[in-house]
Known about the structure:
By secondary structure, the protein is mainly beta. Helix content is 7%, strand content 40%. It has a 5-stranded mixed sheet. β4 (60-67) and β5 form a beta hairpin. The radius of gyration is 12 Å and the shape is globular. The model has no long low-confidence stretch (mean pLDDT 89).
Amino acid sequence: xxxxxxxxxxxxxxxxxxxxxxxxGGPLDGQLLDVTGxxxxxxxxxxxxxxxxxMYGPGGRSDYSGxxxxxxRLYWQGDMP
Length: 81
């Protein structure tokens, strides 16, 4: 799995000391996001991630957030400019 932030074709920078959440759905599906140090509330709230391949093209953002009772995954909510 590719880590979010690695460029296409780059070797994964996954590190054993980090905690990752899998991105599920949307344009970043299957990538891992480093969530080391995130609180439970931050994991639930999620993040707006810069996404070159989303609905709004380069510079657009994809919204990923957690779901109650599901650990280790952030789910796509949609794209925004």
